């Protein structure tokens, strides 16, 4: 996929708008409506923060007083101070002040922790739900590995942004302001001037270099996502890799991606070294400048040794958070970028949603009617053209035809993964666009060509059909799908893990688990989407019997490749280039001598050439 320059290197104005949008999106999680306890925690955390900073700024005064009290040239005032407080007492007071500073900071973190974790959980849940609400079209075009990384980085960025915007940038500004005020009032304007110039140069340098590094980091993220996609795609297609002896080819593809990631990561490391050295140079220059002024003041008798120590303490006190500023700013910028990608995802509108006033689907018999439906994934290329078909309640209709004729599209429209371009799809006279998606999906069961299972137990995968089912219901469904005996023969029974995508089970076993899952759902309408075409003949014959039992009393749409599996259907329609060209029962279509009869003859000839089928 090619990226435009604006995608790779957004303009400063675009980045500013994106950052402001992200901050606006995050604030409601920090200050939610109707959640007074959250607001109180934020307020208390901010008060504890302010208190810790006031104590922190006051601490060097105790340090100064203790040093002056110990100075051999102490004057009368110092002697009085020693008698009343004592050097030891001042030292203890200094230690207590430092301890209180840390204590209030930790208490602040403890109070705010629940707010941050709650915001993270709410946003993660909202993102997860939104992804499931997005259309099938979106999921087909996106890569799962890249999507998971966007969510992972974005959700992690929320907590970081909330914590460091509140507890790093704001407090740093407050602390610098208080220290600058003290230097001006207690000493003179020269100290303030050096500190202000140092901070201005430091902040400018840090922000400029960090902006440059953010671009490098963005490229590193892109290469990281690309490498992750390659790895996940390769692992999901593990068997295909083995079939084509392509381990080295996959390793080279992955290594190529990691080589580009390595290059971007090295640039990140080199730029970090430059940033750290530049920051140290500026801070050290400012520190030396202020200390030289203080040393001259002590030599001239204008300042005490305690004043010299206090100035040093203040410079060190502002140096530590300033050293952290580059990291915090970089991480905040990166969090804004990561969260911006996630909010872009959240702003991706679902293609198919419930209409205002949509009502639950009421299934009386289960009649399904495609009323002159036309549909195409691309409006300029129709897949179904004037498709008109009625599946009567309790009847079985089979749809056959060559690949690309539009057979699988019928199932996607039935589940309303897409809306029709023209015409209407009705269930018991109700347009599926006028009913809720939840009730529509609850009324339809599907057994696909390739049943995909969760990496959990057999029991979990069967119970997925109905969350409130009992163990007995699960066993009954498994027996009806003719898999119960196999399951109880396993050492762990229904607690047997099926592996990633069910790879520990054979194709027939997976398909039976899928049938049991759909039987447990007990839907009035059933879609069999080439449910046995990927299986061997013997397994197919066994599963066909399970499918026949499942179909009793239900409205069934069967999309078939092997015609021998649908000879008993109440109606068979032949679909070619999105249009129905023939319809009738098996015998009627054979007698017609058209496309269906030709397909039947070819498949029969193929079966006769197969010794295993001929023997059967």
Mean pLDDT: 80
What is the terminal separation in angstroms?
A: 50 Å
| Helix content bin | 55-70%
CATH architecture of the largest domain: Up-down Bundle
| Overall 3D form | elongated
What is the assembly state of the chains in this entry?
single chain
Write down the CATH topology of the largest domain: ABC transporter transmembrane region fold
Strand order, biggest sheet?
6-7-8-3-9-10
Strand content: 5-15%
Strand pairing plus helix content: what structural class?
alpha/beta
Strand tally is 10
Q: How many domain modules?
A: 2
Q: Can you identify the CATH class of the largest domain?
A: Mainly Alpha
The H-level CATH homologous superfamily of the largest domain, spelled out, is ABC transporter type 1, transmembrane domain
- Detail the poorly predicted runs: 1-8, 74-85, 608-616
DSSP helical segment count: 21
How is this structure best described in words?
- There is one protein chain.
- The protein has 616 residues and is of the alpha/beta class.
- The protein folds into 2 domains: 15-346, ABC transporter type 1, transmembrane domain (ABC transporter transmembrane region fold, Up-down Bundle); 368-450 and 524-615, 3-Layer(aba) Sandwich (Rossmann fold), CATH 3.40.50.300.
- It has 21 helices and 10 strands.
- A 6-stranded mixed beta sheet has the order 6-7-8-3-9-10. Strands 2-1-4-5 form a 4-stranded antiparallel beta sheet, with helices on one face.
- Helix 8 (189-236) runs antiparallel to helix 10.
